[in-house]
Design goal:
Layout: E1 7-10, H1 19-30, E2 36-38, H2 47-56, E3 65-70, H3 80-91, E4 96-101, H4 109-121, E5 125-131, H5 135-143, E6 152-156, H6 168-174, E7 178-182, H7 187-190, H8 192-198, H9 200-209, H10 213-222, E8 228-231, H11 236-242, H12 254-260
Parallel strand pairs: 1-2, 1-8, 2-3, 3-4, 4-5, 5-6, 6-7, 7-8
Helix pairs in contact: 1-2, 1-11
The structure holds NADP nicotinamide-adenine-dinucleotide phosphate (NAP).
């Protein structure tokens, strides 16, 4: 299983130029609170990568584990190298630690595996993976030559969306692919954080453990061994309080949490946002 930080910050908060968010992220990195940062060429059509480039210029590159994503329509013979070089330029770096295919769509998986491995050989990326791949997509990927070099599957997973526990998480574990969860806090649009803030069990456990609902949501994802959880915040104060979830052990509380947020008892098609 690939080794990487357990927790990382996302950059969707950079979609629009947001200097507070850049400042908060730079401070969190420079204080050593967080070292993995996730972006994508899609976010703000490159503006998130540019904003992250500004943050990186004020940090030591080697202190950051950088994750970026290519759109499926650019993962072609003509587009792949162009997209990767454009992302490197916006980020102001000469390598990406982990490069992901953002989602499958009509991507030619055999081509993707070859192109990713060539980029590794060229030193432009260190590892590669995919995002939003369900079990059947992973099986198709592993059926192509070099497909099993894929190290990570980044998917939606939080306490309100537990579908992947049924089959995808066990599949990834069996095949040595690291799960990376996104929207760990339910993102601003889904309302999951609001739901957790109102839940009686989360409120009680939070009081007992001295944790906010957001920190409990982060701790929930992190109880999965060898998973990396992504969250995002434009506020330094939130980043600090959310990260308290990194050290929390929720195992003694799982039976109680299961009452409000039951584990799946059958296949749930992979959810995406
Ligand atoms: N691969 C994919 O398809 C995919 C899809 C979605 C996301 N992602 C990645 O995953 C990252 C994280 O996911 P996400 O951005 O969807 O959302 P998220 O981390 O689930 O939620 C972010 C929202 O939570 C709020 N928040 C954070 N801490 C809080 C607190 N203590 N109290 C109240 N509100 C709080 C933030 O607002 P404040 O700014 O006010 O704190 C922000 O609006 C993204 O940035 C992106 O890099 C990947």
């Amino acid at each position: 299983m690939i080794n990487m930080p357990e927790v990382g910050l996302g950059t969707t908060v950079f979609w629009n130029r947001n200097e507070d968010a850049e400042e908060a992220m730079g401070r969190a990195v420079n204080e050593g609170l967080v070292s993995l940062i996730d972006t994508a060429e899609m976010y703000g059509t490159g503006r998130s990568e540019e904003a992250l480039g500004r943050v990186l210029s004020r940090c030591r590159r080697e202190d950051i584990y950088l994750v970026d994503k290519i759109l499926p329509q650019n993962a072609t013979k003509e587009g792949f190298g162009r997209s990767l070089k454009r992302s490197l330029m916006r980020l102001g770096t000469d390598y990406i630690d982990l490069y992901l295919l953002h989602w499958r769509e009509k991507a030619d998986l055999a081509f993707v595996a070859d192109a990713m491995n060539d980029a590794v050989k060229d030193g432009l990326i260190l590892h590669w993976g995919v995002s939003n791949f369900d079990v059947s997509d992973m099986e198709d990927l592993f059926a192509v030559e070099h497909g099993s070099d894929c190290c990570v599957d980044q998917v939606l997973y939080n306490i309100c969306h537990r579908g992947i526990e049924y089959d995808l998480l066990p599949w990834l574990k069996e095949h040595d692919v690291r799960p990376m969860s996104y929207s760990t806090l339910g993102s601003a649009s889904t309302g999951d954080l609001k739901r957790c803030e109102c839940d009686e069990h989360i409120r009680r456990i939070g009081e007992e453990m001295g944790l906010s609902p957001a920190a409990i949501m982060l701790a929930f994802d992190l109880r999965t061994h060898d998973l990396t959880a992504l969250f995002s915040s434009s506020t330094y104060k939130h980043i600090v309080s959310d990260l308290k979830g990194l050290y929390a052990d929720l195992d003694p509380y799982m039976a109680e949490l299961d009452k409000s947020f039951p584990a799946p008892c059958g296949k749930v098609p992979l959810e995406k946002i």
